[in-house]
Amino acid sequence: MRLSRIIMAFTVGLAVAAVPTAAGAAQPQPQPPGYVPQLLLTLNPTAIPLGASFTLHGSGFTPNGTVTIDVSISALPPVAAPAQGTARRSDGSTVAMAAVAYSKPQSSQPQPAPLHFSVTANSAGEFEVSYTPTRVGRYTFTATDEASDPDRTASVTGVVYQKRPPKPPHHDGGGHLPVTGSSLNTPMKLGGGLLGSGAVLLLLTLAWRRRERLGLGGR
């Protein structure tokens, strides 16, 4: 009996001693002197159609420091060009094209997106900025922490592709549009006329045969 009490008291003592240790481990530990957080730069989404926007997010930068962002653009892998004088549809087929002279007004041209700009990190060393590209290509964003010495950088890459044109409206399997009531007027009139002509010819044929049968035909 005495031994079981000793074991129980020892177990309770260990549990009480472990509580402060666990609580201390749960508290955020101060970073050692000279610690520098790792820079992280992300892009969401990583691929967008032309006209949409990227969201650029950075973390690990100097709190309240200036971050400069440089953008470089490279061409996407080329797509096989259609034959001269033709254009490629969205389904991969080609269609003949006729030359048309047209000049878009300069005022309607979108302003090119900047290739160099700056943002300010918040007190936690993070920032978030939206970027809208104006041309197709592969975009590489490089963020530089200007407040660090030496300068630290982080990069991320995204793709901007050409948005496909809308598909033409779907018709029936024969490729014909449905016929409306007004479109039926002419075929019905034509059919009625042919039917009447056929009836007259049939009556004339029967009358001629009857006349021949009675011997009234001309000799």
TrEMBL record:
Signal found in the keyword field: yes
Taxonomy, superkingdom: Bacteria
Renumbered residue ranges of the record's region Disordered: 163-182
Keyword terms of this UniProt record: Signal
Signal peptide boundaries: 1-25
Name of this chain's protein: LPXTG cell wall anchor domain-containing protein
